[in-house]
Design a protein that fits this description.
This is ChbG/HpnK family deacetylase. InterPro entries: Glyco_hydro/deAcase_b/a-brl, YdjC-like. Keywords: Carbohydrate metabolism, Hydrolase, Magnesium, Metal-binding. It holds the Pfam family YdjC. The chain is an alpha/beta fold and 264 residues long. The protein has a single domain, classed as Glycoside hydrolase/deacetylase (TIM Barrel, Alpha-Beta Barrel). 42% of the residues lie in helices and 15% in strands. It is built from 10 helices and 9 strands. The chain has helices at 15-27, 42-49, 77-85, 91-109, 128-138, 158-166, 169-178, 199-209, 232-242, 245-253; strands at residues 2-11, 32-35, 57-62, 115-118, 144-145, 182-183, 186-188, 214-218, 256-258. Strands 1, 2, 3, 4, 5, 6, 7, 8 and 9 form a 9-stranded parallel β-sheet that branches. α2 packs across α4 (91-109), α4 packs across α5 and α8 (199-209) packs parallel to α10. The longest helix is centred in the middle third of the chain and has 19 residues, at 91-109. The N and C termini lie close together (12 Å).
């Protein structure tokens, strides 16, 4: 039996995403969610997590690319990548933003995050990762960090998987090892969010190739998702599969037991 954790990203980005994630948590088909604490919905939505009865991980979805507020330190993904690799991101503003997002999380939940990851994987970028690790050491962080260092390569998505891995996964894993911060061992969930993708088939591939301590990211939402979200149709497809009987049947078929990373 392989223990695998499904984590839904983008909690509190909007109401439709939050409601989908809460439903899947109550159904016990996902075991973690990663929260966007800059969102104007965050403090209200966070209270609903307290009603979930099953054990699950609540994480901070560190954000530097999605604009909730003009006061936030935000860039487009391409600009963020360019400035990270040219080391022209403001270290002061990165640190200030991490502190604010961390503080919002603790204010709403009453505890440190169980884990840290990044919206569009920004937590593994140069500058951001070094400041993040330093900050977590100061806070005596006892949780884990999402690692893309050992991704599952699935046919059709090898190039995107390789690109995401090269955007800092190896260096972040090295920093975590050096500073004795836990990570997931394996990672999956990467695809192109196309509406023509057979999401059930993709999950069957991930579940088949999953190893012990595999983290699989997902991005579910209800059918009323706001149209300005560029991947809203993919989110709906993900929710429909994860909430269906087929998902749990597929887990059983591939000898997978669902559990939070902390239980692995």
């Amino acid at each position: 039996m392989k223990l695998v954790c499904y984590c839904a990203d983008d909690f509190a980005m909007n109401a439709e995403i939050t409601h989908a994630i809460l439903h899947l948590l109550h159904q016990k088909v996902i075991q973690a969610t990663s929260c966007m604490t800059q969102s104007p919905y965050w403090f209200d939505h966070a209270t609903k997590l307290l009603d979930v009865q099953q054990p699950f991980n609540i994480g901070l979805h560190l954000n530097f690319t999605h604009n909730f507020n003009d006061e936030d330190y935000i860039y487009s993904l391409n600009t963020c990548i360019r400035k990270a690799w040219s080391h022209t991101l403001s270290r002061h503003h990165i640190r200030q933003s991490i502190e604010k997002q961390w503080g919002n999380f603790i204010e709403a939940t009453g505890k440190q995050p169980d884990f840290i990851d990044g919206h569009q994987h920004v937590h593994q970028f140069p500058v951001i990762r070094e400041i993040l690790i330093s900050f977590l050491k100061e806070k005596k962080f006892k949780g884990w960090i999402r690692s893309l260092n050992q991704p599952l390569y699935i046919q059709g998505y090898q190039l995107k998987t390789y690109i995401l891995h090269t955007l800092g996964a190896k260096k972040l894993q090295s920093l975590c090892t050096t500073h004795h911060i836990s990570t997931n061992a394996y990672f999956a969930g990467i695809y192109n969010f196309s509406t023509t993708v057979d999401y059930a088939f993709l999950n069957q591939k991930w579940l088949k190739h999953a190893q012990e301590n595999t983290l699989i990211m997902c991005h579910p939402s209800l059918t009323t998702t706001q149209l300005e979200d560029p991947i809203y149709l993919a989110r709906i497809n993900e929710y429909n599969y994860l909430s269906s009987p087929q998902f749990l049947e597929d887990c059983h078929r591939f000898n997978v037991q669902l559990a939070p990373i902390g239980a692995i």
